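Q: What would this chain look like folded?
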Amino acid sequence: MSPNNDIFQDIAQVKTAISDLMDLSKKYGATSAEAVISKSKGITVSSRCQELENIEFNQEGALGITVYVGQNKGSASTADLSHEALEQTVEAATDIAKYTSEDKFSGLVDKSLLATDIKDLDLFHPHEITPEQAIDYCVAAEKSAFDTDERITNSDGASLASYQGFKVYGNSNGFIEGYPSTRHSLSCSVIAQSEEEMQRDYAYTVNREFGLLDNAQIIGSKAAKSAVAMLNAQKLNTCQVPVIFDAEVASTLFGHLVGAISGSSLYRKSSFLLDSLGKTIFPEFMTIEERPHLLKGLASSPFDSEGVVTKDRNIIEAGVLTTYLLTGYSGRKLGMETTGHAGGIHNWLVKATDKGQKALLSKMGTGLLVTELMGQGVNTVTGDYSRGAAGFWVENGEIQYPVTEITIAGNLSDMFKQIVAIGDDVEYRGAVQTGSILVENMQIAGN
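A: My prediction, written as structure tokens:
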């Protein structure tokens, strides 16, 4: 990995290249143009059974350009930033544009929507690490797992990754901005065995700053305890009961919300939340805030993938859907303005109603605690939801035994409205920060 200040030289070089691209696009007859690059480099090291398994050094990222000739669009990319390569790329993109169909909704976002004050969100914390140091972390995580419980009999491996990179976006409206970022992670997956039964589970930590990762011993021990807890799992008879989604899997419910209120799903009419803007889709106590400018946030960004400034907003307020998630293109298709969501969401904070998961278990009484979801059985057009699951059976607010080989089913519209409580055991390791969620009633398919 190169010295850290090299990344700022790289950003400056790319900005110059994008400026050249904008000039070249005019030369080849484009009426407007935009270009973007996300570049990263780093190391991934993995171990298995406390022995080195793999070392990978990665460096990737190409500069993509999109040109518009009127309402005709063409795209091309290059990893070579020489003037000759840039000219060839622009020429290729404009040639493609000549053969594409006219699309009256294509084009750049309005100049007034572009970010002008690029905040430093403290996303760049490079950490120099040797392969030898990285493998020590992996081995330490696995050793901790084996030391935690004698029923840990095998390992699926541990992995450490450390990456730094940058994003630069520019367009012919005079916008060319970029920023660097880092991402570090450590994970461990182990297998517990009791007689003939085996269960696998894992733990991981991720952060912008290496020093804020959970230590290897904690990750290994957590993986071991999770795997052992699932030993002697039972099946359930088919039933209808309340369900708690553990914080680690609860964010997936809001992932389905993201898909349903995204512009592309709406203009294609492939969403179960069509025409839901301004309507109540959750209980009144539900609030989801979006905060794009959280320092060190894993989904923080000063601007989206079209240069549009990102803003604090409430996605759900008192149960009401207050906004769709729109890009420039989807906004024009729907007769609305972009919301700055080209490239995804930015730090959703789901407001808690109760203390941690124990409070939810007590409130539920008898039902199912889901800790793992499998399969992709979600229909975003109808909202029908059916996924394989594993977790724990609960009675009188206390965990009784692990369960596996079951399916949980419902409809997302009903599930959203039947949320009873949200714990403050918040999962911070993703774009959606939420605690455990208690849903009033779901169908469990078992024996």
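The chain has a mean pLDDT of 96.
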